[in-house]
Amino acid sequence: MKYIRNLFLLAVAVVAVSCTTGQTTTTVGTSTEVEKKVEQLLGKMTLAEKIGQMNQVSAGGDVSNYAESLRKGQIGSILNEVDPEKINAYQHIAVEESRLGIPLLVGRDVIHGYHTIFPIPLGLAATFDPELVEKGARIAAVEATAQGTRWTFSPMLDIARDPRWGRIAEGSGEDTYLDSRMAVAMVRGYQGSSLDETSMAACVKHFVGYGAAEGGRDYNSTYLSERQLRNIYLPPFEAAIQAGAMTLMTSFNDNDGVPSTANAFILKDILRNEWGFDGLVVTDWDSMGEMIDHGYGLDRKDVAMKAANAGVDMDMMTFGFLSHLEELVRSGEVKESTIDEAVRHILRVKFMLGLFENPYVDVEASQAVQYAPAHLEAACKTVEESVILLQNDGTLPLQADRIRTILVTGPMADAPHDQLGTWAFDGQKSHTVTPLKALQERFPGKVVYVPGLQYSRQERNRFDDVVAAARRADVVLAFLGEEAILSGEAHSLADLNLIGSQSALLAALKATGKPVVATVMAGRPLTIERDLPNCNALLYAFHPGTMGGPALANLLFGDANPSGKTPVTFLRTVGQVPMYYSHNMTGRPYRGEKMLVDIDQEAGQTSLGNTSYYLDYGAYPLFPFGYGLSYTTFAYSDLTMDKDVYPVDGTISVSFMLTNTGAYDGTEVVQLYVRDLVGSLTRPVRELKQFQRISLKAGESRQIRMELPVADLAFFGLDGTKKVEPGEFHLWVAGDSVSGEPISFQVR
Ligand code: NOJ
I want to staple 245 with a disulfide (CB 3.0 to 4.6 A). Which of 63, 124, 240, 337 is the partner? Predict the structure, then answer.
């Protein structure tokens, strides 16, 4: 099946006015028309012009630097230019002054918003709200395309089970199903339901396995079996491609010795032949050149040959294609048909985006949509849904009328750049609303600000100034965490405790006896176990973006009720890595044995139980996947299934009662998990198969029904094929990945 072409059938030729932007949509034609145009253009191109299309360069300088190359048709795409006037100038040379007038595809890392910055992707995943995430991606596309970016290098679909890896911030966390749902939402949002001038081609990355870097050190090797790839790492990519993702990026890592940029098994056999992808494959930044450092190629000519033959269409910043493909075709080491196929992939995307019809940006109009009030409002709502309440002794929500003085403290209380998180190139800190600013606006005259620590890594022994201010306050709001620079690409950490003297600051505040509410802003799940006793309540905000301040103020004071859930397991200590909820069943599962501190000195080794756990840290994380509290409480009851036995092509219908048993209206993320009891392979203890956000008034009960196709239980088993293996299963419906009582069913 040809997914992109299918998507394109939806984008039939219409000229309409977009409701969000007022921009006019472009007439782009049907799929067959595009294919015709691609072939016609390809037929006119010289080999050099074809190879030129396969070359992507980074701009960010004087337009004249690339003028000559553009005239010669040696550049197919630029990245990192966001000035609409410069983009027009580049396009002008490409379109008006090159022989064939092929427009450029302009790319940018628009990862969690363009100007209006949303929470980092890990925070987006914590919402468990694909519709809202789609809306955010649409907003990012509207803002970015208005300024000339028609291609984003997002979504990042790398499953990450190691919080040391800095890029865990950029993905949806540890779970294949949640990641797949977010992938589809983002692709739809970026590209739009039909293609028009606000469509920004999505680029799913990094293909594949990059998040499994050994030791959590970025760029490191991975060792994923084909089974792990197929069952865990590949499904989000397949889902995104089925949803119409137009482009894909290869990853930096080598998997089991083969760098992704030259891995024909994943780029051809799986991506093209099994999945029918006919979009554009781009390398990561110089990942072709880096194959020389990997020891996988002699020189740039050698790696260009390997990448082209493995199925790469476009070279980001190695210049290996531009410099060597012509001679490689002449020598027969790369076939011209390979080049033709690559150029088809590139031209198809350009035609589909309507670039030939309208390559230019309306400079006058490009500012109007940036930071639009509706965009800021959506960003604020997204933060409210993304923040996770991890601890609360009843201190939250705060009652504003009972508070005269609020102490705001901590290095993240007023960090307008850092709360934007990693990869927020275009978000301007002047537009960020920090918690301090939001609280000062909301409670004029009530807020006292003593930062305590200027930045997270600062070391201090005494906190006399903060402690004195805390003694005079009714409540202490401590904003802790890590700055944007401590996560993201190439920013891995080996120690995941709160950095610097932040834990000491929190302990000093708690010692005053005043109520202390901690809010942690970070790019990853930090190991915060030692900090929990030092606060009455703790909110966890993966870097929340432009509107972090107002959203947090709403949550702290009860105008919004937390509903975020952990998209990744929170560890007690970094030594537990990797620990994730959907691990396979072991032969000796932990059965509650004692830990080192409890062991009787006299006890012999056999009394330790001989099961799978750490003597010092046990078997459990600090907070499991899917976990998050609310100001209210929810009870699940009457879980039933419509049958005991299902055929492989059947649908399971589950129903249960959900009751809001607390005093506040709230939203619960209901999660459906399954265990396949016996398989041709050992199977995960639980796998998330569905979720739904359900809002209930205080005291309200509702009967909820969830339908699960039995086909969703399929996996790649011992024989390498994907199918449902008949047998017995357990099913849970619960508010996290460890709660609830299972019910059994069979598939026959
Ligand atoms: C390198 C990163 O790995 C990738 O995610 C990004 O899209 C490119 N650089 C372009 O900036």
Answer: 240
Q: Cα–Cα distances in Å, from 186 out to 137, 245, 380, 494, 524?
A: 6, 9, 18, 31, 20
Please identify which of the residues 278, 284, 313, 736 carries the catalytic annotation: 284
Name the residue among 736, 561, 568 with its Cα closest to residue 121: 568
- Which of 477, 528, 478, 532 lies closest to 499, judged by CA? 528
pLDDT tens for 688-723 read 999 999 999 999 999 999 999 999 999 999 999 999
The superfamily CATH assigns to domain 634-747 is Immunoglobulins (2.60.40.10)
Exposure of 161 in the CB half-sphere (CA atoms within 13 A): 18
- CB within 8 A of 219, min separation 6: which ones? 213, 252, 253, 490
- Homologous superfamily (CATH) for 373-556: Glycoside hydrolase family 3 C-terminal domain (3.40.50.1700)
513 CA to centre of ligand 1 in angstroms: 47
Report the greatest alpha carbon distance in the chain. Answer: 86
Q: What is the pLDDT of residues 482-524, one digit of tens each?
A: 999 999 999 999 999 999 999 999 999 999 999 999 999 999 9
What is the distance in A from the centroid of ligand 1 to the CA of 284?
Answer: 6
| Distance between CA atoms of residues 413 and 418, nearest Å | 10
**Helix extents (H) in 154-289:** 176-191, 226-228, 235-242, 264
Would you call 651 exposed, middle or buried from its count of C-beta atoms within 10 A (0-12, 13-18, 19+)?
A: middle
Pocket test for ligand 1, best of 220, 250, 252, 284 (most atoms within 8 A of CB): 284
Predicted TM-score (pTM) of the model is 0.96
CATH, range 14-367: 3.20.20.300
- CB crowding 10-33: b at 16 or more within 10 Å, else e: ebeeeeeeeeebebebbebbebee
DSSP assignment string, 123-161: HHHHTT-HHHHHHHHHHHHHHHHHTT--EE---B-----
Q: How confident is the model at residue 18 (pLDDT cuts 50, 70, 90)?
A: very low
Burial of 73 per CB tally in 10 Å (0-12, 13-18, 19+): buried
**Domains in the chain: boundaries:** 14-367, 373-556, 634-747
Q: Is 401 a catalytic residue?
A: no
Q: Spell out the residues 6+ positions from residue 139 whose beta carbon is closer than 8 angstroms to its own.
A: 113, 116, 118, 189, 374, 375, 378, 379
Ligand 1 geometric centre to CA of 136 (Å): 21
Q: Are 613 and 590 in contact (CB under 8 A)?
A: yes
Residues 148 and 372: their CA atoms lie apart, in Å, by: 17
Burial of 297 (0-12, 13-18, 19+ CB in 10 A): buried
